[in-house]
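From the pipeline queue, job 12 of 40. The input is one protein chain; the requested action is below.

Action: predict structure.
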Amino acid sequence: MSPTVERRQGRHGRRAKAPVALATAGALMAATAVGLALAGPSATAAAVRAPRGSAAWTGQFTGYGSGAWKSAWGWTSTGSWGAADVRQVTDPTAPGDHSALEVTYGAGSSAPSCTDCPNPGGAQFYTRLASLSGGSALASSTTLDLRYAVKFPIGHDFGKAGKLPGLYGGQIGQESGGNHGDGWSTRYMWRGAKGVSNNGEVYLYTPTDSGPTGYGVDLGVGDWTWPADGRWHTVEQLVDRGTGDVTVWFDARKVATFTGAASGIGSIPFSGVLFSTFYGGHDTTWGPKTTSHTYFADFSLSRSVQH
C-alpha cells in the first residue's frame, strides 16, 4: 500500500517444471443455490493440470450478502469494509452463473487509511476455508490455485495503482499492511510504470520478505497488462507453500513464474481468498479522476492448475 516498494525482477521469468500427470480422485458435491461446489481430497502437485470442472470450490455472486451466500463462501466480517460500494449485478457475458460483483471506486478514492480522500471506494472481505465443509484439506494442501474473472470497462481510469484479490494464509490482519508476522498474501495489483497505466503484478507479503518498508514486494511489474476493453478475462495464480513458487496465468497463458518468491510460508496454511480491491497508496493522488467500476465473477479454488 505504500508507494515505496521493492521490485524483485530476478524472481520471475524462469520456466516452471514440466507438468507431471497424477491421478485425481474425489467426487464433487452438488452446487448450492449460490454456486458453491466442494470436492473430496485429490492427489495433486504444483504442475498438475486439472479440468476446469474439477475445482474443489466455486463461488458465484447470486444472492450476494445473504446468509446463504456468506455460508457458501466462508465469509467472515473480520477485516471487511466497503459494503456500500459493492453490489450484485447480472451480466449475460459473465462466466459461471452470469452473476457478478460490481465494485465502485469514488473519484479521488484511495486506501481506507486515506484521511483526506473526498470519496470512499473499493471493498474488502476475507473467506475462511476452515468454515467450509472439506475446506481443511485445501488449507493444509501444499499447493492451492485461485482462478477468477475480472472485467474493466472500456476507458477505465487506472490512476496510479490499485489492488485486486488473491490468496492469503495465516491470521487475518497479519498478512498485509505492515503487520504480517504470522501471515502472507499474494494479491494482484495494477500499477502505472514506464508510461503504461495498467501493468499487472503480484503484490507479495510474507513473514520473511515484505519489502524495505514492510508494505509489500512488487513481483513482475508489466509481465502482463489488465485490458480495459469491457470484456471478461481470467486470472489464475498457483501458490506452492513447499517451494515458495508463485505462478500466474492470464487468459490461460502463463505470464509469470516467481521462483521461491514466497519462501518462508511453508508452515503457514492456506486460509482462503482475500477479496481486496481499492486504489492506493494512502492519498488522493492514487485514485481515479472520476467514479469508476470493476467487475468480478466465477471464483474457484483447486489444489492444481485449473485452466
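Job complete. The longest strand covers residues 183-193.
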